[in-house]
Design brief:
The complex is a heterotrimer of chains A (195), B (451) and C (194). Chain B is mainly alpha-helical. In chain B, 49% of the residues lie in helices and 10% in strands. Chain B contains 19 helices and 8 strands. In chain B, a hairpin with a 2-residue loop joins strand 6 and strand 7. The chains are: A alpha/beta (195), B mainly alpha (451), C alpha+beta (194). Chains in contact: A-B, A-C, B-C. The interface between B and C is large, with 51 and 48 residues.
Chain lengths: 195, 451, 194
């Protein structure tokens, strides 16, 4: 059974007062990002260090420990995405509600990093999901994550709220309707061997 | 008695026409109740299989725990691993011996120095230069390793505390860790995954001011560990959650090949730093903390005591470094990475002396420099195994060389891989919440488990 | 009752003490972190020193350095002399999305053309911007910290003394080995002798 979720629309306020509405909505969206920490490897330790007392990204409005992807706005992929883990990444990204943002933290999730020629590593998480900000480093400093969040916040501040351009930005990933069966299906069996 | 055909003749038993064909029906018609119960439980009809992970805030990284539950009790626990397998060992077969350090340092990412140390000790054993490593290099290695032991235990306690719900433990643990990471950054340039220990010695000498900074930091870290102790040691909630949880006695540890704090909390004072010393550990004065409670609480206390011992060793190492300068790389020019007295802002680069020599004076030195940095040195054919006592247990490296500039095979005996196999033994029979505590007390790091 | 009150007083005292203790937090965007001089943020290129020997590109464990160069000849300066060949660097790019900050490229460069800089604020929204060409790499040069003093007890040779005296930010060409043929001893501060 397909769940027919319509694309997000901004509503009547936008028609009446577009610029203030845009300002308010962008301000609200960028200063309350609930982050879903997709911590995989070494960069996850630096991500945790960034959430701790010394660097503290809660000051920037990013709230850690979201209970799950369904209550998160921002996904920080930190660490190597292996081919075994890739379906899980895609599935959890699909479970996040719109509008959602992705920060790719560290060399491994940017492009595979030191393991880019390995047999079992996905060469960058942007092969699976659309990424908004890339933070370089191996692992990047916690301050680099803070700067990446600031870059993301500047990007959100400039977002336009026209419905068409929202669809345009979210594009092929969001226009696609995910059926409940798709996100809960079991593993697909490999094709039959025809000898 | 439990035959379904008998039920038809029994006026009070269940009749088969209102259940499915293959549903077993058990009738108690007198006789032993226990036998019936045994048969019912053997059918496993009520079993629930819960999948924890691979993405879960409480598992240490990408660990998938498959738990079979009977109510709240775990009847079977299995670990699904491989979600972080990056093929480091295979990658290292295509890098020179020195470049291999930059890869192996990323395996168990909370203890990078130990990964490098085990690899370099194995390579040095294969080269046969183990006793030519300069003493200052050994002292710096010990210093870095003990600091890394403290940071690893801090991460273990902090994340363990967070998983149990004690967030203050996490903030304090990471606060102390930041102090030590700034020392790492001062010496190596990176906070984590510093490819600092190289075959033959260490990459660069410590910069000026490090010793003072270390001497300032040690009392602060000590105070922080005391704060952690105040929060953890006699806390009734923590004791309630960790005492007699994750129990694995000595015979269990020996059967599974467990090493590290788990083994020492089971009563056996086995530590490779005392049993098979390396890097000059026999000259340092420290104890091996041991408990005999075999549970998560014992492992927690062992880790805290080990942090105190590490601080003692750090103080002794710093006194030795203060005593006088010395070379930090082996003297043999055919092996030594050209890191002599560097002048770059980070301690990297080549000294003008070296450049004058290779560019101006000696053609052989120039050739050596180019050959050394492009090809790398050659290790004579053979194999070697070297193990260090890492914060998680015995970290070993087995290198096989075919005489070339690249290893034929490098395999790591990672302690987390072996220790994680105890998850079944420690978790089965407990409740789901105890699984979290048991896994936290095993302290696996999935980068090491999967490599 | 007194036990309850004394427990409450102890708890409130802990809260009051924590409330008045200065927070450990570094307010990042307003306060930049104080980084040690060895800190590895980004790699800076001093283009004049690079001779396209390709050692860094060869030694990078991730092959993230891309170098293109070609040879040019300078005509002989004295009559009957030989035309000299030298390398001209066309392209030097480092892909920071692959770089693992191991520093091997900086260590192996025999001409000190690569340096570490503590700058870390170069996150981008497009991954192609992480492939930095030599113009961008050259712009990081002013952020490279001065060489740190060596451990004082070590005997300082003449050469090291010269390095300590020269300020690298003011005069990047001096104090560094420039391109010279084998056989000539590099001396900082002198004009390039043909």
């Amino acid at each position: 059974m397909t769940t027919d979720l319509p694309m997000p629309r901004v509503g009547a306020g936008q028609a009446a007062a577009p610029k203030p509405m845009r300002l308010v909505l962008n301000w609200g969206r960028r200063y309350s990002l609930w982050v879903f920490n997709f911590g995989l490897a070494c960069c996850a330790i630096e991500f945790i260090a960034a959430s701790m007392a010394r660097h503290d990204f809660i000051r920037l409005g990013v709230i850690p420990f979201a209970p799950g992807p369904r209550q998160a706005d921002l996904m920080v992929v930190s660490g190597t995405v292996t081919d075994k883990m890739a379906p899980a990444v895609r599935r959890l990204y699909d479970q996040m509600p719109e509008p959602k943002y992705v920060i790719s933290f560290g060399a491994c999730s940017n492009s595979g990093g030191p393991y880019w020629d390995s047999y079992c590593v996905t060469k960058g998480v942007d092969q699976l999901i659309p990424v908004d900000v890339y933070v370089p480093g191996c692992p990047p400093r916690p301050e680099a994550l803070l700067q990446g969040i600031l870059v993301l916040q500047q990007q959100i501040a400039q977002e336009k709220l026209q419905t068409k351009s929202l669809r345009g930005r979210l594009g092929p990933y969001a226009g696609r309707r995910a059926s409940a069966a798709e996100v809960s299906r079991p593993l697909v069996a490999p094709p039959e061997q025809t000898t | 008695m439990t035959d379904t055909t008998q039920a038809q003749s029994d006026p009070y038993g269940a009749t088969t026409h209102d259940v499915d064909e293959d549903t077993p029906v058990l009738n108690a018609v007198g006789g032993d109740w226990d036998e019936l119960v045994d048969e019912a439980t053997a059918l496993h009809e009520e079993r629930i299989v819960v999948n924890m992970g691979p993405q879960h805030p409480s598992t240490h990284g990408v660990l998938r725990l498959i738990l079979e539950l009977d109510g709240e009790t775990v009847t079977e626990a299995r670990a699904g691993i491989g979600y972080l397998h990056t093929g480091i060992e295979k990658n290292m077969e295509f890098r020179t011996w020195t470049q291999g350090v930059t890869f192996c340092t990323r395996m168990d990412y909370v203890m990078p120095i130990f990964n490098e140390a085990s690899y370099c000790l194995a390579v040095e054993k294969a080269l046969g230069i183990t006793d030519q490593i300069p003493e200052r290099a050994q002292t710096i290695r010990v210093l870095m390793m003990e600091f890394n032991r403290i940071t690893s235990h801090l991460v273990a306690l902090a994340t363990g505390g967070m998983e149990m719900g004690a967030t203050t433990v996490m903030t304090i643990g990471f606060r102390e860790r930041e102090r030590i990471l700034s020392i790492f950054e001062m010496i190596t340039g990176l906070r984590m995954n510093n490819a600092y220990i190289r075959p033959g010695g260490v990459a660069t000498d410590i910069p000026a001011g490090t010793i003072d900074k270390i001497r300032e930091t040690i009392p602060l870290v000590r105070k922080g560990i005391h704060e952690l102790e105040a929060l953890l040691n006699e806390n009734p909630i923590l004791k309630g959650r960790t005492v007699d949880v994750g129990y694995l006695d000595l015979s269990g540890c020996m059967a599974l090949g467990i090493t590290g704090p788990m083994l020492r909390a089971a009563g056996l004072p086995h530590d490779l730093r005392k049993a098979e010393p390396y890097c000059g550990y026999e000259t340092y004065d420290f104890d091996i903390p041991t408990r005999d409670t075999c549970d998560a609480y014992g492992r927690l206390r062992v880790r805290i005591d080990e942090m105190h011992e590490s601080l003692k060793i750090v103080e002794q190492a710093v006194d030795r470094l203060d005593a006088g300068p010395g070379p930090v790389m082996v003297a043999d020019k055919k092996i030594a990475w050209p890191a002599q007295l560097a002048v770059g802002s980070d301690g990297q680069g080549n000294s003008l002396d070296h450049i004058r020599e290779i560019m101006g004076e000696s053609m052989e030195s120039l050739i050596h420099h180019f050959k050394l940095v492009t090809e790398g040195f050659r290790v004579p054919p053979g194999q070697a195994y070297a193990a260090v006592e890492s914060p998680k247990g015995e970290m070993g490296c087995h290198v096989v060389s075919d005489g070339g500039t690249r290893p034929y095979r490098v395999h790591f005996r990672d302690p987390s891989f072996n220790n994680l196999q105890a998850v079944a033994a420690t978790a089965e029979g407990g409740s789901v919440a105890d699984v979290i505590v048991a896994v936290a007390s095993i302290d696996p790091v999935m980068g090491g488990v999967d490599r | 009752m007194t036990k309850f009150l004394s427990g409450l007083a102890k708890g409130m005292a802990t809260t009051a003490r924590t409330m008045t203790t200065h927070a450990h937090t570094q307010q990042y965007p307003h306060v930049k972190p104080e980084l040690p001089s060895r800190s590895r943020g980004v790699i800076a290129l001093l283009e004049e020193n690079c001779t396209s020997c390709m050692l860094c590109a060869r030694e990078c464990p991730d092959w993230c350095i891309y170098i293109d160069s070609h040879k040019e000849t300078t005509p002989p300066t004295t009559e009957g002399g030989r035309a000299r060949q030298h390398n001209v660097l066309d392209r030097f790019a480092i892909d920071f999305s692959l770089c693992m900050y191991c520093g091997i490229c900086i260590e192996v460069c025999p001409f000190d053309a690569l340096f570490w800089s503590p700058e870390f604020e170069y996150s981008t929204t497009d991954i192609r911007d992480l492939l930095q060409e030599k113009e961008t790499l050259g712009q990081w040069m002013p952020t490279v910290p001065a060489p740190e003093p060596l451990v004082p007890e070590l005997p300082q040779t003449e050469a090291q003394q010269l390095v300590v005296d020269v300020e690298p930010e003011d005069d990047p060409a001096a104090g560094r080995t420039t391109k010279r043929g084998a056989g000539e001893v590099p001396r900082p501060g002198t004009e390039e002798q043909p």
